[in-house]
Amino acid sequence: MDRSDPAWKGQSEYTPLLLRLYDPLVLGPIARFVWRVPAHHIVEHYQRHIRPGHLDVGPGTGAFILRSGLAAGSALTILDPNPNVLAHCRPRLAQFDLTAVEADVLKPLPIEARFSSAALNLVIHCLPGPAERKAKAVEHIAAVLEPDGVLFGATVLGTTGRHTPQARAFLKAFNWNGGFDNLDDSEAMLAGILNTFFEEVTIRTIGSAAVFAAHGPRRSTRAARSHSSSQRWGLVRNRSSPHSSQKASHSARGAPSQRSSSGLVWRIWTPSSAVRRRARSR
Ligand SMILES: C[S@@+](CC[C@H](N)C(=O)[O-])C[C@H]1O[C@@H](n2cnc3c(N)ncnc32)[C@H](O)[C@@H]1O
Question: What's the rounded Cα separation, in Å, for the pair 39 and 218?
Fold first, then answer.
C-alpha cells in the first residue's frame, strides 16, 4: 500500500515485532482492562458465526480463527494489505485450506469466491474516516458474501462509547498516533452502515466496543444506496448514556431486543426500527 493512501496508518504498525506481542498484550490485558472486552466474548462470537468458506478481513495474528472451532481443512481466506500479517498467519493457519490475499478492504476486493461468513474484527476502528469511507469496507464484503452470508466482528467505539478514563486515554493516544481513526465512530454510525448493506443487524456493546453481526447482504447496490439515503447515517441515535449501567445501556427504547445466554441484551437494528425512531423523534 502506498504511504499516501488514507488507509496506510491503520495497517502500517503491524510489524513482525508487534505481531509477536499482539496476543499476549493486545488480546490480553489491553482487551480486558482497557477496553473491558475480555477475549472470550470475541471467541464466543466467532464460534457462533464462523462457517466453512470464511473470509477474515484484517486477521492480525489469526488468534480468533484458531479458537473459533473452524474445522481443519475448511476453506479460509484471509485478506490484509500488510504482508507481515499474511506471513505471520500463514504457518499458524496451515491446518485450513488457506488463501491469503494482499488487499485493502476499502477498495473493491480482488476475489471471485463467495463466502458463507466474513469477519471484520477490531478493524473498523483502524480504518480512516469519515463514515462514508468506512462504509466501503462493509459494502465490499457484502458483495462477496453468499445470499445467506453473515458479517460479524467488533470495533472500539469513539468518544460516545462507554469508556473508562483509562480507555479514553488510550483512545486519544491511538488516534494521535494514527493506529486508530475512530473518534467519531458511534454505535449509531455502525448501525447505519450495516443496515445499508444487510437485511438484519444485531449490535451489542461490551465495555468500550460494539459487537455486531449482520445477516443477508442486500443484493442490489441501488437498493442499499436508496436505503442509506432514506436512513442517513447517524440519525439512528444511540440513546444510552456513558454513565448508565451496562444492562440499561443495552436496552434500546423502542428497538426490539432479545436477551442472550450471557444475560446481555442484543439490540436488533432493522430498517423498520430505524424508521420508527425517526418518526418518534419528529
Ligand atoms: C487491530 S488488528 C485486528 C486483528 C484481528 N482481526 C483481531 O481481532 O485480533 C487490525 C487488523 O486490520 C488490518 N487492517 C488495517 N487496515 C486495513 C485495511 N484497510 N484493509 C484490510 N485490513 C486492514 C491490520 O493490518 C490488522 O491485521
Answer: 30
- Give, for ligand 1, the residue of 15, 27, 54, 80 to mutate: max count of ligand atoms closer than 8 Å to Cβ: 80
> Is the distance from the beta carbon of residue 7 to the nearest atom of ligand 1 less than 6 Å?
yes
Q: What CATH code is assigned to 8-281?
A: 3.40.50.150
**Residue 244 pLDDT > 90:** no
Q: Answer whether 62 contacts ligand 1 (Cβ < 6 A).
A: no
**Angle, helices 187-197/131-142, rounded to nearest 10 degrees:** 40
Q: How far apart are CA 62 and CA 43, in angstroms?
A: 12
User: Residue for cell digits 477474515?
Assistant: 56
> What are the structural domain ranges in the chain?
8-281
Q: Is the CB of 228 under 6 A from ligand 1?
A: no
How far is the centre of ligand 1, averaged over its atoms, from the C-alpha of 280 (Å)?
A: 38
Rounded to the nearest 5°, which phi and psi values hold at 77? Answer: -120, 130
Please tell me the predicted confidence (pLDDT) of residue 219. Answer: 81
Closest ligand 1 atom, residue 56 Cα: 6
- Distance (Å, whole) CA 263 – CA 260: 5
DSSP state of 270: -
Q: Quick one: 46 exposed, middle or buried, by C-beta within 10 A (0-12, 13-18, 19+)?
A: buried
Residue 53 region by backbone torsions, left for phi larger than 0, else alpha for psi between -120 and 50, else beta: left
* pLDDT tens for each residue of 185-207: 999 999 999 999 999 999 999 99
